[in-house]
Amino acid sequence: PYDILVVGGGPAGVSAAIYAARKGIRTGLVAERFGGQPLETLGIENLIGTPYIEGTQLAQQLKEHLKKYPVDIMNLHRAVKLEKKELVELSLENGAVLKTKAIILATGAHWRDLGVPGEAEFKTKGVAYCPHCDGPLFAGKNIAVVGGGNSGIEAAIDLAGVVAHVTVLEFLPELKADKVLQERLARLKNVTVLTNVETKAIRGTDRVTGLDYQVRGQSDLTHLEVAGVFIQIGLVPNTDWLADTLELNSRGEIITDKAESTVLDGVFAAGDCTDSRYKQIIISMGSGATAALSAFDYLIRN
Ligand code: FAD
Q1: Which residues contact 150 (CB under 8 A, 6 or more apart)?
Q2: What is the pLDDT along the chain (302 residues), one digit of tens a residue?
Q3: How far is the CA of 11 from the centre of ligand 1 (A)?
Q4: Alpha carbons 165 and 188: distance in angstroms, whole number
Q5: Structure ipTM over 0.95, yes or no
């Protein structure tokens, strides 16, 4: 069996595997798609100590760093079941079962898509999901935020300080965000809120130039000229296969403590698949390191 098996090949998983391997223990890493979300990212400017790096290059460097250690890398394998017996048993989609003394789940998350024409086409060309990451790219421009829940309104408040003007589009007749956020938003002069509207399409040429929306129940489309569209309708953790085994919160995130332990002994979790407050590369890497050190501590005590 492995001493520590990591599931996930993004920033959290790679960090966990390197920290584990540096303890001289038998370490494996299974990933459906090595690299994780950075593969979908154009430029990263907030990985402290690295002023700028492209997402695909970061994924490449994660692999190079990992390969300096004797870690069994099993790429293009999807984990489908976790069982805690005497050891932890991880079933893969191809039928293989991997056994390990401790496991670190780092399966990340994905942004919920709006599913309208133009969204996929203009990803990283004006369609954005992360205000902390991409806000400064739209300095001085007009943008839209789709989604009026807490994350949408937090994004709108954040972006209003950076861009020229923000239009918030919410599908429901009223915003769903906490009252204090709505009050804060209402005090901002460069924000317009549209409720009861459905975003129908994102338009552009080589980059986003606007979007079309419809007041619900009416037939005509209205065009809004914007240089960017931030989609804030939810970040979905990749944990559906764990719902029967682990404690998840209402958003489906794995509940962990400060040591990144879960409710099951020997099972740890790190990064965007957990209930960590903020989802960022630097935070995921720190959380992977914490999980590996905690898993090592678990091994020497059991
Ligand atoms: P992920 O990167 O999501 O990696 C998860 C890994 O688990 C992947 O390898 C995946 O294939 C694997 N996996 C999932 N399910 C399974 C399974 N069942 N079996 C096996 N493997 C599985 N953050 C920043 O700090 N700065 C930025 O500029 C920035 N820009 C971003 C831009 C975009 C477009 C996106 C989408 C995200 C951005 N982020 C940015 C967020 C950042 O990418 C994430 O916070 C970070 O990648 C999370 O790391 P992670 O390892 O927890 O998860």
Answers
A1: 176, 177, 178, 181
A2: 999 999 999 999 999 999 999 999 999 999 999 999 999 888 899 999 999 999 999 999 999 999 999 999 999 999 999 999 999 999 999 999 999 999 999 999 999 999 999 999 999 899 999 998 899 999 999 999 999 999 999 999 999 999 999 999 999 999 999 999 999 999 999 999 999 999 999 999 999 999 999 999 999 999 999 999 999 999 999 999 999 999 999 999 999 999 999 999 999 999 999 999 999 999 999 999 999 999 999 999 99
A3: 7
A4: 10
A5: yes
pTM: 0.91
**Whether the CB of 41 sits within 6 Å of ligand 1:** yes
Phi, psi of 104 (to 5 degrees): -120, 120
Closest to 89 measured CA to CA, from 99, 103, 104, 79: 99
What is the CA 274 to chain-centroid distance, rounded?
10
Q: Which atom of ligand 1 is nearest to the CA of 273?
A: 52
Three-class SS of 262-296: CCCCCEEECHHHECCCCCCHHHHHHHHHHHHHHHH
What ligand 1 atom has the least distance to the C-alpha of 109?
3
Kindly give the distance from the C-alpha atom of residue 168 to the centroid of ligand 1, in angstroms, as a whole number: 26
Segments in the chain forming alpha helices (H): 11-21, 55-66, 131-134, 150-160, 179-186, 281-301
- The residue whose CB lies within 8 Å of the most ligand 1 atoms, and thus the one to mutate among 75, 133, 236, 254, is 133
CA of 21 to the centre of ligand 1 (A): 21
